[in-house]
Sequence to fold (143 residues):
Amino acid sequence: MGKRIEPSRKSTEERLDDLLAGHREAKLRNEGARYVARAIESSDSMPNAVKFFAYALQAAESEDEDQALEALEKAEGYLPVAQKELGRRLERELPELRFLERGIALRSERAEFDEALRLCDLAIALGLGDAYARKRSSLERMA
Fold:
């Protein structure tokens, strides 16, 4: 009788490392969005904290605006889990993620200023810097 192959027992951080490394490689070939879409499609066993990153990357890179906004919504849903499970690692990685920047741009282009302002507030609460405070002020004048 053959030996049973044990499933991989990677930690959440190791799974995140795999996702980010794969995305980096794919991005070099201009296939970052496609890589993330495939990762999400096969995300049955992906930890929810890692799903946050997958959806955040998709929100930032998807060429389809509706898909980007849908991914942004899903990323926000997984954010509390990522904060709890990845803590400092999340804080380190957040400035590199452009999902809120993209969401704010798409919402303001669609004249959905209240939602754009809410995203600015989220970015500020996450400690992403003064650029979001300035963007918020600019949006308030437009609204």
Observations:
- The chain has seven helices and no strands.
